[in-house]
Amino acid sequence: MTRPRTLRELKAAGHRHRSVKDELRDNMIARLKAREPLFPGIIGYEHTVEPQIMNAVLSRHDFILLGLRGQAKTRLLRSLSRFLDEWVPAIEGCPLNSDPFQPLTHLARRVLEEKGDDTPIRWLHRDERYQEKLATPDVTIADLIGDIDPIKAATLRLDYSDERVIHYGIIPRSNRGIFAINELPDLQPRIQVGLLNILEEKDFQIRGFPVRIPLDVAMVFSANPEDYTNRGNIITPLRDRISSQILTHYPLTREQGMAITSQESWAQRTAGVDVRVPSFVRELIEEVAIQARKSEYVDQNSGVSARLTIALLENVVSNAERRGLVTGEKKVVTRVCDLQAAVSAVSGKVELVLEGEQEGAMNVARALLGKGVKAVFSQRFPDAFKPRRARGRGAQPPSEESESQAAAEYRPVLEWFSSGHHLELGDDLPQAEYAKALASVKGLPELAARYLEPRDADEHAVAMELVLEGLHQSSMLSRERTDTGRTGYKDMLKQMLSGLGDD
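RESULT FIELD:
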């Protein structure tokens, strides 16, 4: 379809002016009626955040998203451009994208006076109508709103109060679009004051000269909640002018977190090695972030980004891919020991409190990996230290026989180690050697198959390793790491006694 190129053609096509907020509202209503997904790719906000954003748009509000790092705030703001019209007309050459029926600048009005219905029209795509600025302490009023250009004033012999000498900032240039400011509290208070008139009266002043330009712009913001940041605050008058404040959050369930990690991570590689990640390994990776979000060593005011699990999964896949390239195997499965090789993805993603700094970033990261293993193990396997509770009304208290039932699940494995055996594993072992070593532990194959339900023999081997690591994290097996990066599992009591020596 050919779009009108002049004002005459635009009038003949029946074009009508519509504000940006009306445009957002109308297009959202159309999508709601058609039952189309409004925010594709956003997981876990369907019943919490998304309805509040819809309400803000339907109310024609400027709004702010408040939340910790890694909660998809920027992605949500950028997705708002989907509710703009695909194309809108503007006067050719106008720096503020003036609508032909509502010219804003002196240039736009002059062009209309001189050319009338022959005024040339250019078309703006919705992607051009979303602008974004990261708030940093060095941002100035000139960057956001504009400044007087003395050279232009001298050249044109104009007074400084004439709008033609203004060098416009990014907000006026976002006219007829959406303008987003990320990390709003980082903006200096005196700069935040400059936004007040734009939000409420839709005009602005530059160096004391009032400029009455009714900007048509939807303003949206993102920030950490004020109580969660020491970098700055949102001044009260500005916060009062932002009509809706919407709180974001981390995934409410592990399944939501796993879906986000799977969607965002780069796990499909093209190096000739097919890497498969078992479902219980994905659970384990997500559990690491869950444990970090309640760890006493991690600064919870800073938060733990969803990028932690994404980077961790990618590193785990890369370690398995590297193993396949070295061993020549075309198909590999990620292992529990791959997590230890991927610990760098955790250490750089958490901000530690004083106690965590004293422990060391790498030690805290390894501890979080261990807690993740223990959590998955505790959810999948019976507790050897706690008797199984009788279920149903009128059930009798557990007998001594039932109290030992859970412990009996692990007895064959523990007895194998207590009889003097030990097992050494590494992320460099070929799959056949790795699986054979694990299968040699008495009772381990049956235990792993019963509670983890692996899909095939390769996943079965990984499940057996998870059992051993879970027993260690539950203080039933000893584990030590060698200088070559191998992990050795031994009987807990004998390991403790060996440290006593002749004493």
